[in-house]
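User: Please go through the entry that follows and flag anything odd:
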Amino acid sequence: MERIQPASGALADAYIAGCRVGELRLQCCSRCGLHQFYPRIMCASCLSDELEWVAATGRGEIISFTVVRRPISKAYEAPYVVALIQLQEGPTLMSHVVDCAPEAVAVGLPVQVAFAPWSESVTLPVFTLDSQRGNSS
């Protein structure tokens, strides 16, 4: 059984290509400097269309999470952690926290991006607890 695949298209392709080479990319407005995620055709702050893709640090903090104990299909092995990650650059994205017991995850913990194969052709960002940074981001 296959996992749900991300949408492809002009806006998503640069993001997906970055993930494929181990780089978390965000859009950054050349006019006001806002970093944004999810990809859009204009800046969410100043409405400029002067957006460029930049590499993010990949560092962030867990701002919310849930432990999924009953997966939506056999393609997802439970338990797993789905979390909202606030990136250092500002945007929030939803991802998985991996390589730790679900009980180790808590709001406020720092995380670092990693990348995991999602299908034969897609790699997506996941996050690991960042013990190097302790409880600060």
User: Anything to note?
Assistant: The chain has a mean pLDDT of 94. Residues 11 and 40 are 7 Å apart (CA to CA). DSSP finds one helix and eight strands in the chain.
